[in-house]
Every structure is written in C-alpha cells, then in structure tokens.
Amino acid sequence: MNPQLAGLDDLEGTYVFDLRVSHRAMKLNRFLWNMIGAPARETYKANPDKAMSDAGLTDEEQDLVRKEDWIGLIRHGASFFVLEKFARVAGRTNLEVYAMMRGETFDDFMKTRRVPECR
Amino acid sequence: MAKIIGGIGTSHVPTIGVAYDKGKQNDPAWAPLFEGYKPVADWLAEKKPDVLVFFYNDHATTFFFDLYPTFALGIGERFEIADEGAGKRPLPAVRGNVDLSIHIAESLVNDEFDMTTFQDRAIDHGCASPLPLLWPHAPDWPGAIVPIAINVLQFPIPTAKRCYKLGQALRRAIESYPEDLKVVVVGTGGLSHQVHGERSGFNNEDWDKEFLDLFVKNPDELTKLRHADYIRRGGAESVEQIMWLAMRGALEGEIRELHRNYYLATTTAMTVTLYEPA
Predict the structure, then answer these.
(1) Is the pLDDT confidence value at B160 over 90?
(2) A91-119 pLDDT, tens per residue?
(3) Is the pLDDT of residue B84 over 90?
(4) In terms of pTM, does the model score above 0.90?
C-alpha cells in the first residue's frame, strides 16, 4: 500500500488510478488514449467492433465502451483522462459524463451547480 | 543573470479553452472567469517577462501510461498544442527557449532531479488552457515557455514536498543562467474538484480558501500533507495542487498576493492568483 494514499478506503465514489489498475487495464486505456489521433477516430467510427477487437479489448470491455457506461469503465480501470478523449468521439461533454457517473440526468446534475449556464 | 520576478497560480480546466475558442469572454456565465484573468494579463503586459516556466500536468496526451514520466521538461523552438480528441485549437504553436530549457535540464539533473526530457511533442490543456488568458497570441506569443510536466495522474506521484523542492531547484537553475531574462513561474491545476466516479462534482470552498491563505503564509504546512489529504479535502483530482507548491518553492521566502480570483461555477473552483516576492 502506498502510504501517501492510506486511509481512503471509506471514501465512496473514488477510484485511485495507480500502477496496479493501470497495468490491469492497459489495453483499454491505450484504446481510449488513441482517440487523440484523427485516423484512430475514423477507424473506430467506421467499424467500432473491429477497432475494439483489434485493440485487444475483452468482451466485457467492448460492452462497456459500446454502452458508453462511463461509471462502469471507471470501475473497470479506465483513467478519466483517456476516457474524456473517447467522450469527445462519443459527442459527450465532460459535464454530461460527470452527470452519468453520478447516476443523474444532466438537468438534475446541473441544478446542483452554482452557475448552470457556465458550459 | 536570469531572475524570477513573480509567480502565477491558475486552474487549467479544459472547458476554459473551449469557452475561449467559442468567444464566450462576455457571456455572463463566463465573464467572471475571464475578467478575473485581466489583472494578471495586465501585470504580464507591464512587466514583460521573457519566459513563463510552467509547472503543469500532462493529461495522458503527450505521454501514455506505458511510459509516464514523473518530471518531464520540454525542449524546443515551438510546442504545438495537442489535439485531445476534438481536433486542433486555433492557436499558434507556443514559443520555446531551447538554450534556457537545456540549461535548466542540466542544472536540475546536476542538482539531483533526474528529469525526463522531451522534444517534438505537442502539449495539452494543462498548459494551453490558461495560456491565452495570460498572454496574447496574435500575431504571435510575446515570449517563450519552459514546460515542466509533473505526473499527477498515475500513482505513485511525487510528494507535495518533492514538488516544493523541485521549485527550489528551478530557482537555482534560473539564477545560474547568464542571460538577463525575466522569468515568471506558473503553477497550474485545481482548486477543488473531482472528475471521476460517483464523487464527481465534489468541491470544498472552505478548504480552497485555507489552501490559498496557507500558500502565502505557511506553505510548509501544505508540503506536509499526504496525497490522501488533498484527495479527501479537495476532491481526487485536486491533488494536482502540489504543482502550485513547485511554483511556491521557486518563490521561496515571503511573497505578496497581488491578485486572487475564485470562480466556482460548475465543477472546478477556477482560480487565478498573482504573487511577487515580498
């Protein structure tokens, strides 16, 4: 256990991205990271199933991506910072992704914000 | 001799870049953010620093987790601004200062900070989101940047104290550079926010204010906090505030806070501050 991170076990809704997680979910994170390249985006859009299969994603991972199950992907080991690159491809803003991770509708989530028009 | 004339703390929320590119400077929801940067931009226009050294973090854009540097220093005549999934931004590539970057690399490594160096790589919103609010970019940027990326994404990440010491070492590097350059050190990130998991949207204004006050008066206190303390108090991704401490280390000693703007609109406490040595 990394002593810098000790004592977070009871902190709900937080998934520390450390080398253990990164190692386990490397292929998924690499697939999401590749979305910063226009050719990878086009390849994915042309045939999502083939792109995911070629990237070595497991059936479970492919299913999470297909469903755009953001919280499922985080729990599985995706780093938010590559997930947000895929969100651009999926046409989702970060605010929309936050709402979905919280299990709220976008409108309900924005009602909890101080300046909901700031988007 | 080169000299550090001030420090800037700033959020690097990617949405700031999107709002900037869409021309939302006068949008009532965004104006408090953009207005808050003007005193800092004015100060920079008046002081005319040659260089901004950025302590920032990459967001798995320039580097991927298969080879993720703890501290990485960029060297180049120009740094392209990265496509992060939504295409290129309409900004000119940022200017660099090759000789200064190389001197800083040599000085830091000889000072026992074993930096990774990178060349020919685009840099992301960790640096590019606040930059156009600080410096004009038409027809070109008025000065150069030295980008120093700190891993705050993939644990283990450097401790708060280590970041502070990196800032102290940066100061020694700057002050051993023979050319009379004026340098401003920028620390980016924060303040309170969390952008993953069900805890997304967490903020803590009381802690943000305490952080900003301690930052000036008692930064030592902040260097003693563990990552878990930052995560619990300010939200998981607020741990990146350790990059402000790198800037604080470069301004070691007494400082004056000339400006502070704090705007918590949706999910990140968007903040910009300006400091001068006292």
Answers:
(1) yes
(2) 999 999 999 999 999 999 999 999 999 98
(3) no
(4) yes
For residue B182, CA distances in Å to B6, B40, B47, B48, B144 come to: 9, 16, 9, 8, 11
Tell me if residue B125 is catalytic: yes
DSSP letter at B116?
E
AA identity, residue A100: M
**A60–chain B nearest CA distance, Å:** 19
Residue A66 in any domain: the answer is yes
**Which of A10, A42, A80 is the best substitution to test chain B (most B C-beta atoms within 10 A)?**
A80
Residues paired with residue B96 on neighbouring β-strands, in sequence order: B145
Number of domains making up chain B: 1
Distance between CA atoms of residues B230 and B216, nearest Å: 18
DSSP state letter for B6: E
ipTM comes to: 0.97
| CB contacts, 8 Å: B199 with chain A | 11-14
pLDDT at A59 over 90: yes
In a domain, A71, yes or no: yes
Range of the domain at A38: 16-111
